[in-house]
Amino acid sequence: DPERMISLDTDWFYRKGARGLLWLAAHPVASADARLGEAYQSVLLRPARALGGSLATFDRRVIDGAVNAVGNLTQAGAAVSTAFEKYVIYGLLNIAGYANHIAAAILRKIQSGQVHHYAALLLVGIFILVNLYLWFIDHTALAVILSQWPLGGKQ
Predict the structure, then answer these.
(1) CB 110 within 8 A of CB 117
(2) Hey, what's the torsion of the CAs at 83, 88, 91, 97, to 10 degrees?
(3) How many CB atoms lie within 10 A of CB 134?
(4) Which of 127, 131, 128, 125 shows the shortest CA–CA distance to 145?
(5) pLDDT band at residue 151 under the 50/70/90 scheme
(6) Sorting pLDDT into bands at 50, 70 and 90, what band is 128?
């Protein structure tokens, strides 16, 4: 005969407990989850999505519009700067270079190698410098010189 013994089916507690937890999950917890999910949707998610859409529109229209406007202004300023440099600055430099070639061609002709030509040019240069000084710097000296000139003074 088999020996009589008292056996505790320990698995029984787990099975009954699991059935109870499954019932709780299927009935009161599921309905509470559904209500919390709806509240979460209506209180947090929908307003957050609406705010996100509004901020995205603001970013696209205002912020990106300002950035694009600054970029367009920068490109326009660069175009003006490039045109100024190309036509004004380089134009003046080209004029100065061309004037240098013209002056060299003219001055090459007066270079004869004879000393009396160089002396005459030196005297003409001194005469021009003295007249410029008297005209622009010292008007009183010019007035004195003109008053003592044979036909420029009192008669």
Answers:
(1) yes
(2) -140
(3) 17
(4) 131
(5) low
(6) very high
